[in-house]
């Protein structure tokens, strides 16, 4: 099913994209992009394209703390990543919420981020 979008002008904003009535819920593109970046950047570290996080950050033109937080997304439980990719994450889940604190324990991640425990 193709998602239909409407573009509306709202005071104080140049353009806001709103899903059309009956459209599927939009996936969180920034969160998906961050997960993909985390995986790609980890590959760069593993294959030696970057020596360490500081070197990786310099190559990317980013600050090391941000790169470290994005790399932390690689520790998300596989079912959480799958739900995000499928657009089935809990309502209200944001990239800021996830990147602020990613527990090592997958069950704790599920509890903290509103996913069903396994």
Question: How are the strands of the biggest sheet laid out side by side?
Answer: 1-2
The main pleated sheet reads as:
2 strands, antiparallel
The portion of residues forming beta strands comes to 5-15%
- In the predicted model, the low-confidence regions spanning at least 5 consecutive residues are 1-11, 13-17
The averaged pLDDT comes out at 83
What characteristic shape results from the CA principal axes?
elongated
Compute the gyration radius: what is it?
A: 17 Å
Number of helices: 6
Protein traits:
118 residues, mainly alpha, two-stranded antiparallel ribbon, 2 strands, 47% helix, elongated, disordered N terminus
Describe the structure.
This protein is mainly α. It has six helices and two strands; from the N terminus they run E-E-H-H-H-H-H-H. It has helices at residues 29-46, 53-60, 64-71, 78-85, 95-100, 106-113, and strands at residues 5-10, 13-19. The protein has a two-stranded antiparallel ribbon with strand order 1-2. Residues 1-11 and 13-17 have low confidence and may be disordered.
Briefly characterize the structure.
With 118 residues, the protein is mainly α.
Topology:
Blueprint: E1 5-10, E2 13-19, H1 29-46, H2 53-60, H3 64-71, H4 78-85, H5 95-100, H6 106-113
Antiparallel strand pairs: 1-2
Helix pairs in contact: 2-3
